[in-house]
Amino acid sequence: MVPCQTHVLLKWQEHFNSSWAAEDSLQIARRHGAAALYDKLLHNKEVVTLAQPVQELAGPRLPDFECESSASAEKEEYLSSLLRSQRWLAHRVLTQTSYTLGLHHRLVVLQRVYYALHSKYHDKFRVQLPSHSRDSGTECGQIEPTSEPFLPGGAPKIKSGTDVLIEMGVRTGLSLLFSLLQQNWRYAASIHPESVLCNDVLNTASSVLASLPPLSLANENKIPSVGLDCLAQVADFLKKTSVSSGSGGADPTGRRLALELLLGLAMQRGSLKFLLEWVEIALAASMSSSTSTLSSSSSLSSQQSAGVGFDVIHQTLLQMRQYSGFRGDAVNTQVLKKDADGLCRLSQAALCLFEEQICNLASYCLCSCSTDAAAPGTESDTVMVYVWGSNSSHQLAEGTLEKILLPKLTQGFSDAQM
After folding, report:
1. CA geometry: angle at 47 spanning 44 and 53, to 5°?
2. How far apart are CA 230 and CA 218, in angstroms?
3. CA 389, CA 366: separation in Å to the nearest integer?
4. At what angle do helices 98-117 and 31-43 cross, to 10 degrees?
5. What pLDDT, on the 0 to 100 scale, is given for residue 306?
6. pLDDT in tens, 106-144
């Protein structure tokens, strides 16, 4: 964030990257289009104009030649000062011409679009271009000196030593944590069944996750690469824990807490992909529990391992209806049943979630569109499309909104048939 040659301060804001990445390049090539986009930068406070210095307007202080006599060297210095002042004044006048202003607007807009595209598509590939990134950064610095604040080094660069140390510390810390949890489960199963400390860790993690605002992890562009790797490692560990059985795996309470924590992560990430993955894991865990029931004489342990908290599933269903704009009575063929321990069967919970997110919500939106299309007095059957969820990569075509909690009528799918 440094001032340019035309005395402006450039401060790119990350939440506008998706809209700038979708700008039409033909509009930038036209003078009026570039001026409109530059006005947009001014309106969004991404370009701040600075006051121009006025000390040069006064010019150099000259002596009174009628009263004083000056040496030839002093006269040369006075003449040089006058010429410098005139050149500065001419430069300032030329920077205010329409051509110079239009060129400056176009260059600033191009820098903004380039920064948005780089942040959206190329941040994940910094390690893959070691030598080319340095060359590209040098060329960019020569051609456009004002691009350095917004994109250090120009093109993608190698990770710094600090980033590598942080990533190494996080990865090794997670590996150590997972090893300690598995070791504690094995120790509790063989020696002290009452000392299951790892279940307290999972329970605390679930409580912290439940206290976050909705869709806190939906915008992956705001999460650094180390954070995404951590989420992937945690999800992989929880999946293995959920379906593990036997003396080397987690106990029934640990498997239940792992499933509940994995469901909380899926809800916070706000993507259908993660919810469907949870349904698949829950069905696999239920199948694994049913298999172990046939080979085990302890029916109580098998029932506990196949359960998940009733309140957790019920709260998840309520959140899905609340943030999806559902305003009707859900017609569910699957009814949650709570046992004496406050649990419900995994297979039943998985089917309820699948029915809620696929059948009920899709049918509700389709019925709403059909009702509006078949209203009396309409000449044609119009299908309206509503969108909601994460818009971090502009996948919903809804401007700069990063997440949409309630269904919103979109104009981007006006020709939809069904």
Report:
1. 145
2. 15
3. 17
4. 60
5. 66
6. 899 999 998 888 887 775 544 443 444 344 333 333 333
Residue 38, token pair as written in the block = 């530059």
- Using an 8 Å Cβ cutoff, are 17 and 98 in contact? no
- Give 280's contacts (C-beta < 8 A, 6+ positions apart): none
* 49 DSSP β-pair partners: 8
Q: What is the dihedral of CA 265, 268, 270, 273, to 10 degrees?
A: 0
Task: Render 152-205 in DSSP notation, one character per residue.
Answer: TTSS--PPPHHHHHHHHHHHHHHHHHHHHHHHHHHHHHHT-TT--HHHHHHHHH
Spatial separation of the C-alpha atoms in residues 291 and 287, rounded to whole Å:
6
Domain positions in the chain are: 1-52+88-120, 196-289+306-321+334-369, 383-417
**Segment of 155-164, 180-189, 298-307, 336-345 carrying the highest mean pLDDT:** 336-345
Considering only 88-102, 189-203, 274-288, which range has the smallest mean pLDDT?
Answer: 189-203
Structure tokens at 292: 């172990």
Q: How far apart are CA 253 and CA 307, in angstroms?
A: 9
* Residue 47 pLDDT > 70: yes
Query: Which residue in this structure is represented by tokens 């029916």?
Result: 299
Q: How far apart are CA 174 and CA 196, in angstroms?
A: 19
C-alpha pair distances (Å), 169 with each of 127, 160, 234, 387: 18, 14, 15, 40
Amino acid at site 26:
L
Q: Quote the CA–CA distance of 25 and 166 in Å, as a whole number.
A: 39
Cβ distance 320 to 359 under 8 Å? Answer: no
Query: What's the CA gap between 133 and 353, in Å, rounded?
Result: 46
